[in-house]
């Protein structure tokens, strides 16, 4: 039984799919399966039940998962501390999108660099919350900044800020003069949607259904910053969270949409108490 066996098993347990883990780790599905089978030989118990559409854990698998998760998180934290003692620096690994760095992290990054000039910040770009969580679970990063939602197995979430929704439009658009956008207005907008796999799009369209206004037909698909630029160019209307630096687009006007429930964004980690001191400090700086 090796640490690599346990890391692969954790990834398979959390995704429920051998081929997904093989793709994420750049290995063959057979190699991933061998890690699990080696653990099953060592424990003398089946850990996963193979099914046509993936795998599900057995009772023995659930017990091993809980034990391995805490142990590896603590070991990773210890190895990070040893690296800091050896090198006098270390690194904090973060996954998020470029939009997040621009709107939420600029001041925190500058202050962290001032406080810890020998500790590097490694940013791993991801285009969705799902991808951020995959990188976090795989042990490739320490922290993920995500749109928060339902509980995630093996992940601890810490909300930082709730963002109300706004309609971003060109200043010449008739809706730009409104004090607020109503549900009836949403049904007729030229909707610039976020990508299909984004948590924010799913949450927004759930809100459309709740309000009974129906989902507008998208005229384009883009991330938050690109959607704001398209709205500035008059391509359509972008329904966006009230991002801190959104008003920097001079021809762009943002109109509140109070009928939509705000979304919560913040940090996620595998185990908060197992973070290295630099990682915990960076998370706190960004939050503050």
UniProtKB/TrEMBL annotation:
<dbReference type="Pfam" id="PF00126">
    <property type="entry name" value="HTH_1"/>
</dbReference>
<dbReference type="GO" id="GO:0003677">
    <property type="term" value="F:DNA binding"/>
</dbReference>
<comment type="similarity">
    <text>Belongs to the LysR transcriptional regulatory family.</text>
</comment>
<dbReference type="InterPro" id="IPR000847">
    <property type="entry name" value="LysR_HTH_N"/>
</dbReference>
<dbReference type="InterPro" id="IPR036390">
    <property type="entry name" value="WH_DNA-bd_sf"/>
</dbReference>
<dbReference type="GO" id="GO:0003700">
    <property type="term" value="F:DNA-binding transcription factor activity"/>
</dbReference>
<dbReference type="InterPro" id="IPR036388">
    <property type="entry name" value="WH-like_DNA-bd_sf"/>
</dbReference>
<protein>
    <submittedName>
        <fullName>LysR family transcriptional regulator</fullName>
    </submittedName>
</protein>
<keyword id="KW-0805">Transcription regulation</keyword>
<dbReference type="Pfam" id="PF03466">
    <property type="entry name" value="LysR_substrate"/>
</dbReference>
<keyword id="KW-0804">Transcription</keyword>
<keyword id="KW-0238">DNA-binding</keyword>
<dbReference type="GO" id="GO:0005829">
    <property type="term" value="C:cytosol"/>
</dbReference>
<dbReference type="InterPro" id="IPR050950">
    <property type="entry name" value="HTH-type_LysR_regulators"/>
</dbReference>
<dbReference type="InterPro" id="IPR005119">
    <property type="entry name" value="LysR_subst-bd"/>
</dbReference>
<feature type="domain" description="HTH lysR-type">
    <location>
        <begin position="1"/>
        <end position="58"/>
    </location>
</feature>
């Amino acid at each position: 039984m090796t640490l690599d066996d346990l890391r692969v098993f954790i990834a398979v347990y959390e995704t429920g799919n051998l081929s997904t883990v093989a793709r994420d780790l750049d290995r063959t599905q057979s190699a991933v399966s061998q890690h699990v089978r080696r653990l099953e030989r060592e424990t003398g118990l089946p850990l996963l039940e193979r099914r046509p559409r993936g795998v599900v854990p057995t009772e023995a698998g659930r017990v091993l998962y809980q034990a391995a998760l805490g142990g590896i998180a603590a070991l990773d934290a210890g190895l990070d501390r040893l690296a800091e003692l050896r090198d006098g620096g270390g690194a904090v690994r973060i996954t998020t999108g470029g939009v997040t760095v621009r709107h939420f992290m600029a001041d925190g990054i500058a202050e962290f660099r001032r406080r810890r000039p020998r500790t590097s910040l490694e940013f791993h770009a991801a285009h969705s919350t799902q991808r951020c969580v995959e990188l976090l679970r795989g042990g490739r990063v320490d922290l993920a900044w995500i749109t928060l939602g339902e509980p995630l197995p093996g992940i601890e979430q810490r909300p930082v800020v709730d963002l109300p929704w706004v309609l971003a439009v060109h200043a010449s658009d008739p809706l730009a003069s409104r004090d607020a956008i109503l549900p009836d207005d949403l049904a007729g907008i030229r909707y610039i949607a976020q990508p299909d796999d984004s948590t924010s799009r799913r949450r927004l369209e759930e809100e459309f259904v709740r309000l009974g206004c129906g989902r507008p037909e998208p005229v384009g698909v883009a991330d938050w910053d690109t959607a704001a630029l398209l709205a500035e160019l008059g391509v359509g209307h972008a329904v966006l969270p009230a991002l801190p630096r959104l008003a920097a687009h001079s021809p762009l006007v943002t109109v509140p949409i109070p009928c939509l429930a705000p979304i919560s964004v913040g940090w996620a980690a595998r185990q908060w108490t197992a973070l290295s001191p630099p990682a915990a400090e960076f998370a706190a700086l960004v939050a503050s």
